[in-house]
Write a structure and sequence with these properties.
The protein is of the alpha/beta class. Helix content is 22%, strand content 23%. Bound molecules: NADP nicotinamide-adenine-dinucleotide phosphate (NAP) and zinc ion (2 copies).
Protein backbone atom coordinates (compact mmCIF):
# COMPACT_ATOMS: atom_id res chain seq x y z
CA UNK A 1 0.00 0.00 0.00
CA UNK A 2 1.35 3.41 -0.94
CA UNK A 3 1.30 5.57 2.18
CA UNK A 4 3.14 8.55 0.63
CA UNK A 5 1.41 11.86 1.25
CA UNK A 6 -0.99 10.32 3.78
CA UNK A 7 -1.11 10.44 7.55
CA UNK A 8 0.17 7.13 8.97
CA UNK A 9 -1.38 5.68 12.12
CA UNK A 10 1.14 3.56 13.97
CA UNK A 11 2.39 2.56 17.41
CA UNK A 12 4.90 4.59 19.37
CA UNK A 13 6.31 4.79 22.90
CA UNK A 14 5.11 8.17 24.13
CA UNK A 15 6.66 9.78 27.20
CA UNK A 16 3.77 11.89 28.49
CA UNK A 17 5.63 12.98 31.62
CA UNK A 18 9.15 12.90 33.05
CA UNK A 19 9.99 10.11 35.52
CA UNK A 20 7.04 8.01 34.29
CA UNK A 21 7.07 4.80 32.22
CA UNK A 22 6.69 5.19 28.47
CA UNK A 23 3.18 4.45 27.14
CA UNK A 24 2.56 2.47 23.97
CA UNK A 25 0.03 4.51 22.03
CA UNK A 26 -1.45 4.78 18.59
CA UNK A 27 -0.15 8.01 17.08
CA UNK A 28 -0.62 9.86 13.81
CA UNK A 29 2.51 10.68 11.83
CA UNK A 30 2.00 13.47 9.29
CA UNK A 31 3.57 13.21 5.83
CA UNK A 32 7.00 14.78 5.45
CA UNK A 33 6.96 18.44 4.43
CA UNK A 34 9.52 20.09 2.17
CA UNK A 35 13.06 18.76 2.81
CA UNK A 36 11.77 16.18 5.29
CA UNK A 37 11.89 12.41 5.28
CA UNK A 38 9.47 9.90 6.82
CA UNK A 39 11.26 6.77 8.03
CA UNK A 40 9.91 3.33 8.95
CA UNK A 41 12.05 2.42 11.93
CA UNK A 42 13.47 -1.12 11.94
CA UNK A 43 15.46 -1.05 15.17
CA UNK A 44 16.32 1.44 17.89
CA UNK A 45 18.84 1.11 20.69
CA UNK A 46 18.05 2.53 24.12
CA UNK A 47 20.87 4.90 25.13
CA UNK A 48 21.85 6.48 28.44
CA UNK A 49 20.76 9.83 27.01
CA UNK A 50 17.18 8.54 26.65
CA UNK A 51 17.09 7.65 30.35
CA UNK A 52 18.70 11.02 31.15
CA UNK A 53 15.98 12.81 29.19
CA UNK A 54 13.25 10.91 31.01
CA UNK A 55 14.80 11.83 34.35
CA UNK A 56 15.20 15.48 33.17
CA UNK A 57 19.00 15.44 33.55
CA UNK A 58 19.02 16.02 29.81
CA UNK A 59 16.42 18.55 28.75
CA UNK A 60 13.49 17.48 26.56
CA UNK A 61 10.01 18.90 26.09
CA UNK A 62 7.13 16.64 27.15
CA UNK A 63 5.08 14.89 25.86
CA UNK A 64 7.82 13.50 23.67
CA UNK A 65 8.84 10.48 21.63
CA UNK A 66 12.38 9.68 22.77
CA UNK A 67 14.97 7.53 20.97
CA UNK A 68 17.82 8.63 18.70
CA UNK A 69 19.93 5.53 17.92
CA UNK A 70 18.23 3.74 15.05
CA UNK A 71 18.15 2.31 11.56
CA UNK A 72 15.17 2.39 9.23
CA UNK A 73 13.85 2.54 5.68
CA UNK A 74 12.70 5.72 3.95
CA UNK A 75 8.92 5.40 3.51
CA UNK A 76 8.46 8.70 1.66
CA UNK A 77 10.15 12.04 1.14
CA UNK A 78 8.91 15.61 1.00
CA UNK A 79 9.41 18.06 -1.81
CA UNK A 80 12.99 18.95 -2.68
CA UNK A 81 14.66 16.04 -0.86
CA UNK A 82 17.82 15.01 -2.69
CA UNK A 83 19.93 13.20 -0.13
CA UNK A 84 17.79 10.05 0.20
CA UNK A 85 14.92 8.39 -1.66
CA UNK A 86 12.05 6.03 -0.90
CA UNK A 87 13.33 2.57 0.02
CA UNK A 88 16.81 3.66 1.13
CA UNK A 89 18.16 2.21 4.35
CA UNK A 90 19.08 5.15 6.59
CA UNK A 91 20.49 5.98 9.99
CA UNK A 92 18.91 9.07 11.62
CA UNK A 93 21.45 11.67 12.75
CA UNK A 94 21.03 13.35 16.12
CA UNK A 95 23.85 15.63 15.02
CA UNK A 96 22.52 16.98 11.71
CA UNK A 97 24.74 17.94 8.83
CA UNK A 98 23.36 21.05 7.12
CA UNK A 99 26.67 21.61 5.36
CA UNK A 100 26.40 25.41 5.56
CA UNK A 101 26.83 26.50 9.18
CA UNK A 102 30.15 27.37 10.81
CA UNK A 103 30.23 24.01 12.63
CA UNK A 104 29.63 22.03 9.43
CA UNK A 105 32.23 24.03 7.50
CA UNK A 106 34.92 23.71 10.17
CA UNK A 107 37.26 20.73 9.94
CA UNK A 108 37.62 21.03 13.72
CA UNK A 109 33.95 20.58 14.59
CA UNK A 110 31.21 18.02 14.03
CA UNK A 111 28.54 20.10 15.74
CA UNK A 112 26.00 21.40 13.22
CA UNK A 113 24.21 24.48 14.50
CA UNK A 114 20.89 22.83 13.56
CA UNK A 115 21.34 20.27 16.36
CA UNK A 116 18.68 20.27 19.08
CA UNK A 117 20.75 18.88 21.92
CA UNK A 118 19.36 21.03 24.69
CA UNK A 119 15.77 20.14 23.80
CA UNK A 120 14.92 23.79 23.29
CA UNK A 121 12.93 23.18 20.16
CA UNK A 122 11.51 19.65 19.99
CA UNK A 123 9.91 20.74 16.71
CA UNK A 124 10.62 20.60 13.00
CA UNK A 125 12.04 23.64 11.19
CA UNK A 126 8.57 25.16 10.68
CA UNK A 127 8.05 25.09 14.48
CA UNK A 128 5.42 22.33 14.32
CA UNK A 129 5.44 18.64 15.21
CA UNK A 130 4.69 15.77 12.81
CA UNK A 131 3.33 13.62 15.66
CA UNK A 132 -0.09 13.75 17.29
CA UNK A 133 -1.63 11.43 19.85
CA UNK A 134 -5.15 11.69 21.28
CA UNK A 135 -5.47 15.05 19.56
CA UNK A 136 -2.33 16.50 21.19
CA UNK A 137 0.93 17.37 19.44
CA UNK A 138 3.89 15.30 20.66
CA UNK A 139 7.39 16.80 20.67
CA UNK A 140 10.33 15.44 18.69
CA UNK A 141 13.59 14.52 20.46
CA UNK A 142 17.12 15.31 19.30
CA UNK A 143 15.88 15.78 15.70
CA UNK A 144 15.22 12.04 15.48
CA UNK A 145 12.53 10.44 17.79
CA UNK A 146 12.97 6.76 17.03
CA UNK A 147 10.78 4.93 19.59
CA UNK A 148 8.01 4.84 17.00
CA UNK A 149 7.17 2.70 14.01
CA UNK A 150 7.41 5.82 11.82
CA UNK A 151 9.22 9.10 12.40
CA UNK A 152 9.80 12.27 10.39
CA UNK A 153 13.20 13.96 10.29
CA UNK A 154 14.76 16.76 8.32
CA UNK A 155 16.74 15.45 5.36
CA UNK A 156 19.89 16.83 7.03
CA UNK A 157 19.16 14.43 9.94
CA UNK A 158 19.51 11.13 8.14
CA UNK A 159 22.04 9.43 5.94
CA UNK A 160 21.85 6.51 3.54
CA UNK A 161 23.78 3.40 4.53
CA UNK A 162 24.39 -0.02 2.95
CA UNK A 163 20.99 -1.63 2.22
CA UNK A 164 22.31 -5.00 3.44
CA UNK A 165 23.25 -3.67 6.90
CA UNK A 166 21.56 -5.59 9.73
CA UNK A 167 19.56 -4.04 12.57
CA UNK A 168 22.58 -3.97 14.91
CA UNK A 169 24.02 -1.00 12.97
CA UNK A 170 21.51 1.17 14.79
CA UNK A 171 24.25 1.40 17.44
CA UNK A 172 26.37 3.32 14.92
CA UNK A 173 23.68 6.00 15.22
CA UNK A 174 24.91 6.86 18.72
CA UNK A 175 26.52 4.63 21.37
CA UNK A 176 29.14 2.80 19.35
CA UNK A 177 30.16 5.78 17.20
CA UNK A 178 30.32 8.03 20.27
CA UNK A 179 32.72 5.90 22.29
CA UNK A 180 34.82 4.61 19.40
CA UNK A 181 35.19 8.11 17.92
CA UNK A 182 36.00 9.72 21.28
CA UNK A 183 39.12 7.55 21.45
CA UNK A 184 40.11 7.84 17.80
CA UNK A 185 38.98 11.33 16.76
CA UNK A 186 38.77 13.37 19.96
CA UNK A 187 41.53 12.01 22.19
CA UNK A 188 43.57 10.70 19.26
CA UNK A 189 44.83 7.85 21.44
CA UNK A 190 48.37 6.87 20.47
CA UNK A 191 49.96 3.47 20.10
CA UNK A 192 51.48 2.11 23.30
CA UNK A 193 49.54 4.49 25.55
CA UNK A 194 47.60 3.83 28.76
CA UNK A 195 43.88 4.61 29.01
CA UNK A 196 41.23 4.66 31.74
CA UNK A 197 37.56 4.35 30.79
CA UNK A 198 35.01 5.29 33.46
CA UNK A 199 31.57 3.68 33.04
CA UNK A 200 31.15 0.35 31.30
CA UNK A 201 27.85 0.91 29.49
CA UNK A 202 27.43 0.97 25.71
CA UNK A 203 29.44 4.17 25.34
CA UNK A 204 32.23 3.12 27.73
CA UNK A 205 32.68 -0.30 26.11
CA UNK A 206 32.78 1.32 22.66
CA UNK A 207 35.46 3.68 23.96
CA UNK A 208 37.47 0.63 25.01
CA UNK A 209 37.12 -0.71 21.45
CA UNK A 210 38.42 2.63 20.11
CA UNK A 211 41.37 2.69 22.54
CA UNK A 212 42.32 -0.84 21.55
CA UNK A 213 42.10 -0.17 17.83
CA UNK A 214 44.27 2.94 18.28
CA UNK A 215 46.96 0.70 19.80
CA UNK A 216 46.70 1.48 23.52
CA UNK A 217 48.55 -1.22 25.43
CA UNK A 218 46.96 -0.75 28.83
CA UNK A 219 43.21 -0.05 29.08
CA UNK A 220 41.71 0.12 32.56
CA UNK A 221 37.92 -0.18 32.76
CA UNK A 222 36.33 1.40 35.82
CA UNK A 223 32.84 0.27 36.78
CA UNK A 224 30.92 -1.04 39.72
CA UNK A 225 28.97 -3.79 37.92
CA UNK A 226 31.45 -6.65 37.82
CA UNK A 227 29.23 -8.74 35.56
CA UNK A 228 30.32 -6.37 32.76
CA UNK A 229 34.04 -7.03 33.29
CA UNK A 230 34.25 -10.14 31.04
CA UNK A 231 32.67 -8.14 28.19
CA UNK A 232 35.06 -5.23 28.81
CA UNK A 233 38.04 -7.61 28.74
CA UNK A 234 36.72 -9.33 25.59
CA UNK A 235 36.52 -5.91 23.87
CA UNK A 236 40.03 -4.82 24.85
CA UNK A 237 40.27 -3.75 28.49
CA UNK A 238 43.44 -5.15 30.05
CA UNK A 239 41.97 -4.92 33.57
CA UNK A 240 38.81 -3.72 35.32
CA UNK A 241 38.50 -2.16 38.75
CA UNK A 242 35.66 -0.98 40.96
CA UNK A 243 35.84 2.17 43.11
CA UNK A 244 33.90 0.21 45.73
CA UNK A 245 36.88 -2.11 46.32
CA UNK A 246 39.22 0.65 47.53
CA UNK A 247 39.31 2.88 50.55
CA UNK A 248 41.10 5.68 48.72
CA UNK A 249 39.71 7.59 45.73
CA UNK A 250 39.89 5.61 42.50
CA UNK A 251 42.02 8.31 40.82
CA UNK A 252 44.73 7.72 43.43
CA UNK A 253 44.55 3.99 42.79
CA UNK A 254 44.93 4.58 39.05
CA UNK A 255 47.88 6.98 39.51
CA UNK A 256 49.55 4.41 41.81
CA UNK A 257 49.29 1.57 39.32
CA UNK A 258 50.27 3.62 36.24
CA UNK A 259 53.40 5.40 37.46
CA UNK A 260 51.64 8.74 37.95
CA UNK A 261 48.53 8.52 35.80
CA UNK A 262 47.18 7.37 32.46
CA UNK A 263 47.77 9.12 29.14
CA UNK A 264 44.06 9.27 28.31
CA UNK A 265 40.91 9.04 30.41
CA UNK A 266 37.30 8.98 29.32
CA UNK A 267 34.18 9.73 31.34
CA UNK A 268 31.27 7.62 30.09
CA UNK A 269 29.07 7.52 33.19
CA UNK A 270 27.50 10.98 33.21
CA UNK A 271 28.46 11.99 36.76
CA UNK A 272 30.38 15.03 38.00
CA UNK A 273 32.30 12.87 40.51
CA UNK A 274 33.51 10.50 37.82
CA UNK A 275 34.47 13.44 35.60
CA UNK A 276 36.76 14.70 38.38
CA UNK A 277 38.12 11.19 38.97
CA UNK A 278 38.82 10.82 35.25
CA UNK A 279 40.59 14.20 35.11
CA UNK A 280 42.67 13.50 38.21
CA UNK A 281 43.70 10.04 37.02
CA UNK A 282 45.71 11.36 34.05
CA UNK A 283 49.44 12.05 34.07
CA UNK A 284 50.12 15.62 35.28
CA UNK A 285 52.42 16.62 32.43
CA UNK A 286 50.41 15.49 29.42
CA UNK A 287 47.18 13.65 30.29
CA UNK A 288 44.09 14.11 28.14
CA UNK A 289 40.58 13.65 29.54
CA UNK A 290 37.54 13.38 27.30
CA UNK A 291 34.09 13.92 28.83
CA UNK A 292 31.29 12.03 27.07
CA UNK A 293 28.75 11.58 29.86
CA UNK A 294 25.82 13.97 30.14
CA UNK A 295 24.99 15.69 33.44
CA UNK A 296 22.41 18.25 34.41
CA UNK A 297 22.93 21.74 32.88
CA UNK A 298 23.24 23.15 36.39
CA UNK A 299 26.15 20.84 37.32
CA UNK A 300 29.59 22.42 37.54
CA UNK A 301 33.13 21.06 37.47
CA UNK A 302 35.53 22.61 39.93
CA UNK A 303 39.32 22.23 39.92
CA UNK A 304 42.50 24.24 40.23
CA UNK A 305 43.66 25.77 36.92
CA UNK A 306 47.10 24.57 37.93
CA UNK A 307 45.95 21.12 36.81
CA UNK A 308 45.82 22.48 33.27
CA UNK A 309 48.93 24.67 33.44
CA UNK A 310 51.21 21.71 33.96
CA UNK A 311 50.03 20.01 30.81
CA UNK A 312 46.76 18.17 31.31
CA UNK A 313 43.88 18.90 28.98
CA UNK A 314 40.17 18.44 29.33
CA UNK A 315 37.95 17.99 26.29
CA UNK A 316 34.43 16.96 25.45
CA UNK A 317 33.11 14.89 22.60
CA UNK A 318 29.71 14.63 21.00
CA UNK A 319 28.94 11.70 18.67
CA UNK A 320 32.62 10.79 18.79
CA UNK A 321 33.57 13.71 16.56
CA UNK A 322 31.96 12.02 13.53
CA UNK A 323 29.83 13.85 10.97
CA UNK A 324 26.90 12.40 9.04
CA UNK A 325 29.25 11.68 6.13
CA UNK A 326 31.27 9.33 8.31
CA UNK A 327 28.26 7.18 9.27
CA UNK A 328 27.98 5.20 5.98
CA UNK A 329 31.75 4.60 6.17
CA UNK A 330 31.40 3.18 9.68
CA UNK A 331 28.61 0.92 8.40
CA UNK A 332 30.90 -0.20 5.55
CA UNK A 333 33.64 -0.93 8.12
CA UNK A 334 31.08 -3.02 10.00
CA UNK A 335 30.05 -4.89 6.83
CA UNK A 336 33.75 -5.53 6.09
CA UNK A 337 34.22 -6.79 9.66
CA UNK A 338 36.70 -4.03 10.54
CA UNK A 339 34.48 -3.04 13.45
CA UNK A 340 31.90 -5.04 15.34
CA UNK A 341 28.97 -3.69 17.29
CA UNK A 342 27.15 -6.99 17.86
CA UNK A 343 29.00 -7.61 21.17
CA UNK A 344 27.28 -4.58 22.67
CA UNK A 345 23.77 -5.96 22.21
CA UNK A 346 22.72 -7.63 25.44
CA UNK A 347 18.99 -7.86 24.70
CA UNK A 348 16.48 -7.38 21.90
CA UNK A 349 12.85 -6.72 22.69
CA UNK A 350 9.59 -5.62 21.06
CA UNK A 351 8.30 -2.05 21.37
CA UNK A 352 5.73 -2.96 24.03
CA UNK A 353 8.58 -4.10 26.32
CA UNK A 354 10.55 -0.85 25.97
CA UNK A 355 10.19 0.00 29.67
CA UNK A 356 12.15 -3.18 30.46
CA UNK A 357 15.03 -1.74 28.41
CA UNK A 358 14.91 1.46 30.47
CA UNK A 359 14.88 -0.57 33.72
CA UNK A 360 17.87 -2.63 32.57
CA UNK A 361 19.85 0.50 31.67
CA UNK A 362 19.02 2.25 34.95
CA UNK A 363 20.01 -0.81 36.98
CA UNK A 364 23.33 -1.10 35.14
CA UNK A 365 22.43 -4.64 34.00
CA UNK A 366 23.32 -5.53 30.45
CA UNK A 367 24.86 -3.15 27.95
CA UNK A 368 22.55 -2.23 25.08
CA UNK A 369 18.96 -3.27 24.54
CA UNK A 370 17.63 -2.91 21.02
CA UNK A 371 13.94 -2.47 20.30
CA UNK A 372 12.99 -4.37 17.15
CA UNK A 373 9.94 -3.11 15.27
P1 LIG B 1 24.79 3.38 30.34
O1 LIG B 1 24.74 2.12 29.56
O2 LIG B 1 23.78 3.64 31.39
O3 LIG B 1 26.24 3.41 31.00
C1 LIG B 1 26.62 4.30 31.98
C2 LIG B 1 27.56 3.58 32.90
O4 LIG B 1 27.98 4.51 33.87
C3 LIG B 1 26.91 2.47 33.67
O5 LIG B 1 27.02 1.25 32.97
C4 LIG B 1 27.70 2.46 34.94
O6 LIG B 1 28.86 1.67 34.75
C5 LIG B 1 28.20 3.87 35.07
N1 LIG B 1 27.43 4.52 36.12
C6 LIG B 1 26.16 4.95 36.07
N2 LIG B 1 25.78 5.46 37.24
C7 LIG B 1 26.84 5.34 38.02
C8 LIG B 1 27.07 5.66 39.35
N3 LIG B 1 26.10 6.21 40.10
N4 LIG B 1 28.30 5.40 39.83
C9 LIG B 1 29.25 4.84 39.06
N5 LIG B 1 29.09 4.52 37.80
C10 LIG B 1 27.90 4.75 37.31
O7 LIG B 1 24.79 4.65 29.38
P2 LIG B 1 25.53 4.88 28.00
O8 LIG B 1 24.52 4.76 26.92
O9 LIG B 1 26.76 4.07 27.93
O10 LIG B 1 25.87 6.42 28.13
C11 LIG B 1 26.86 6.85 29.03
C12 LIG B 1 26.82 8.37 29.16
O11 LIG B 1 27.17 8.96 27.91
C13 LIG B 1 25.44 8.93 29.51
O12 LIG B 1 25.63 10.03 30.36
C14 LIG B 1 24.91 9.37 28.17
O13 LIG B 1 23.95 10.41 28.31
C15 LIG B 1 26.17 9.88 27.52
N6 LIG B 1 26.17 9.91 26.06
C16 LIG B 1 26.87 10.90 25.49
C17 LIG B 1 26.98 10.96 24.12
C18 LIG B 1 27.81 12.02 23.48
O14 LIG B 1 27.68 12.25 22.27
N7 LIG B 1 28.70 12.67 24.23
C19 LIG B 1 26.35 10.00 23.33
C20 LIG B 1 25.67 8.96 23.97
C21 LIG B 1 25.59 8.92 25.33
P3 LIG B 1 29.08 0.39 35.65
O15 LIG B 1 27.85 -0.47 35.45
O16 LIG B 1 30.27 -0.25 35.12
O17 LIG B 1 29.23 0.90 37.02
ZN1 LIG C 1 25.38 22.70 9.99
ZN1 LIG D 1 22.74 8.21 22.54
Amino acid sequence: MNTGGKVIKCRAAVSWEAHKPLCIEEIEVAPPKSHEVRIKILASGVCGTDTSALSTVFHAKFPVILGHEAVGIVESVGEGVTRVKMGDKVIPLFIPQCGFCRGCKSPNSNLCEKADLSGNSGLMDDETSRFTCKGKPIYHFMCTSTFTEYTVVSEICCVKVDDRAPNEVCLIGCGFATGYGAAINTAKVTSGSTCAVFGLGGVGLSTIVGCKSAGATRIIGIGSHKDKYPKAIELGATECISPKDYEKPIQEVICDITNGGVDYSFECAGRIETMMSAFESTYCGSGVTVVLGVTSPTDRLSFSPFMLITGRSLKGSVFGGWTGEDVPKLVTDYMNKKINVDHLVSKTLPLDKINDAFDLLRSGKGVRSIVLF
